Amino acid sequence: MTKKELGLRDNFYSFPTCPKCHKLYNKQEVEDYKENNINSVMKCRHVEFPNSATRRNRQCQTILSKQVPTMNRFKLKFKLIYLFARIRQQLMAFYNRLNFENFLQH
Ligand SMILES: [Zn+2]
Asked: How close is the Cα of 10 to the center of ligand 1, in Å?
């Protein structure tokens, strides 16, 4: 909470990622995924050659997360996460470093 109040938190955006083909997914989409109306583990839907007549229906099918038991429920843990920070935020962090502008002159 102190870190948040002082603005010391890194605000990364995170995307669940397929460990095999590296396709990025929306976090909410993976968390809310349901099969037969029951929360379930989502599999990758990436098709490597969508224009190929023989491989059109061959999806990656790699599992994107696993269910980890918590106190009274299950929580999803993503197999692979892609983190990214916006360029504006990164530049702000650089310029807040001591003498950063002087180092740019060199
Ligand atoms: Zn995949």
From this structure: 28
